[in-house]
Design a protein that fits this description.
The protein is mainly β. The chain is built from five helices and 29 strands. The longest helix is centred in the C-terminal third of the chain and has 12 residues.
Length: about 400
């Protein structure tokens, strides 16, 4: 698993899962402290007591709690420049990131994952970071830095980046071993301002979506070869569009989040109007993601220090909304299932690719790993939780 720690003109954290490990990046004030962290989390357990619980632990319970504390082992890769955003390639131990020196860099982290996988449980609690030789697999120099980057899940090794000068670049693997990558000679120039986020279609290898400070969301069919015009153009919001997310279960659905705190869901078959618009958050939307195995569940992170989880299969009921405070952020829409708080300056959230409800979120003060505890959990919820803990220990 990893995360990056800078977005646009403010420091931030980005996050993603890589195989069985977590990767993150930390941006420091001095160059020699910047790093990518490949982390292994184990002995994760369900929270036994709420923070506001009046329960007082006995000495025996305190000892048991210490034994069951979650463990963290990591490897770090020092980098010279602060990292804007980093993403991992599913199916291969590669990461790609934008840095503040206007470079797109590809790293091979196989040795770091291997080291973390081979140390036994006793060593994990005592292990210190091992020094491993590291050099970038490849570096692509640009004229201006960017933040948008994404690997395709439908075409192994293909990825795209977007920069602050409104340009969008494609990269293809030079061979099946992914030993090198080739950046396209031409770039897409359909946007008129900074490209903020990019998402490849989960179903179609030729479909790519982007969003921009120019308030639009655009979708490209890269087979067309038209670098100056998008296939689908959506004037999505009244302010900067910060993030987008493609629905894996229904690939014609796309979510977008904006600077004014609103987020929308679009049907790409008809973009004349959005399917849903929610104005519940009070600050810019910083991250958005559909749950991988649920077509109707969406998680949204905001600069108001809240992460909200929505289920749009719930039908609004006028009776349920009577008497609610109408001011933004205080009204509770029936689709709102869960709110996570406790972090400052939340920047990004990512769902686990296997344990679908498990979320990791990054912020200015660290990261959280949590699974929402919905009141209407199935009867086998406890069994699933136990299996989750057991499997995570097998990292």
């Amino acid at each position: 698993f990893f995360f990056s720690s800078r977005r646009r003109h403010t420091r931030c954290s980005g996050v993603s899962w890589a195989r069985r490990c977590v990767q993150e990046t930390a941006q420091a004030e001095s160059y020699n402290q910047n790093a990518i962290y490949v982390m292994k989390w184990h002995d994760l357990h369900k929270t036994k007591y709420d923070d506001d619980s009046e329960h007082e632990d006995s000495d025996q319970e305190e000892g048991a709690q210490k034994e069951n504390e979650p463990q963290l082992t990591f490897q770090n890769i020092p980098v010279k420049w602060g990292i804007n955003r980093i993403r991992s390639l599913g199916g291969a131990p590669l990461v790609a990131f934008w840095n503040e020196n206007a470079e797109v860099v590809v790293y091979d982290i196989q040795s770091h994952i291997k080291y973390l996988s081979e140390i036994d449980e006793e060593q994990q609690t005592k292990a210190k970071p091992k020094k491993i030789h590291y050099t970038p697999r490849q570096v692509f120099k640009h004229t201006i830095e960017g933040f948008a980057i994404d690997w395709s899940t439908a075409s192994l090794g293909r990825f795209a980046t977007g920069s602050m000068d409104s340009k969008l670049y494609l990269y293809e693997p030079a061979d099946e071993n992914l030993s090198q990558f080739i950046m396209s000679d031409q770039y897409y120039s359909a946007h008129t301002d900074s490209v903020e986020d990019i998402q490849w279609s989960p179903a179609e290898a030729h479909a790519l979506a982007s969003c921009s400070v120019d308030k639009t969301v655009k979708v490209y069919d890269i087979r067309e070869g038209n670098y100056h015009k998008a296939t689908i153009n959506i004037l999505a919001h009244d302010t900067d569009v910060n993030v987008i997310s493609w629905n894996a279960k229904k690939p014609f659905l796309l979510a977008s989040g904006a600077d004014d705190g609103t987020f929308k869901i679009w049907d790409l078959r008809d973009t004349s109007q959005c399917l849903t618009e929610i104005s519940w958050h009070s600050e810019p939307i910083t991250s958005i993601s559909f749950q991988p195995n649920e077509e109707s569940v969406l998680a949204v992170a905001s600069a108001d220090n809240r992460i909200s989880i929505w289920d749009f299969s719930v039908e609004p009921d006028d009776e349920e909304t009577k008497g609610l405070d109408e001011s933004r952020g205080n009204q509770i829409p029936p689709q709102l299932m869960f709110v996570h708080q406790g972090q400052e300056d939340i920047k990004e959230l990512r769902y686990h690719p296997r344990y679908y409800e498990l979320i990791v979120s990054t912020a200015g003060d660290g990261f959280h790993v949590f699974k929402p505890n919905f009141e209407d959990e199935s009867e086998n919820g406890d069994e699933e939780e136990t299996a989750l803990d057991k499997d995570i220990k097998l990292f």
